[in-house]
Specification:
This protein is of the alpha+beta class. The chain has 2 helices and 4 strands. The longest helix is centred in the N-terminal third of the chain and has 19 residues.
Length: 114
Amino acid sequence: MKIKQCLSVALPLLAALAAGGCASGFTKVAPMPPAEFQRLGPTAGEACGSLGVLATGYYAIPMGLNSRVENAYIDALNKVPGATALVDVTISEDWFWWLIGTARCVKVSGEAIK
């Protein structure tokens, strides 16, 4: 009977620890804009990364996933000459399967400022 009691406490605790390991803090996408700035117009940028190299349920090797938001932000800035930041930023994500993995694409859009 003691084993059942121990398992009834240990299993939920292990599940909570495992779920907590999947959490992360907030990530700053864009710097705070200065008090005064000039609006340059709308822009958008996109960047992709992949998970792959195993069977469908076990895609585990990340390829370019961690930097895709930053790269999409930089892509959006580079499309407007003189832009130093974005305001009114929105992020959307899309994904699709390819032969040995999945591609995860992020689109960052907003208004460029300087």
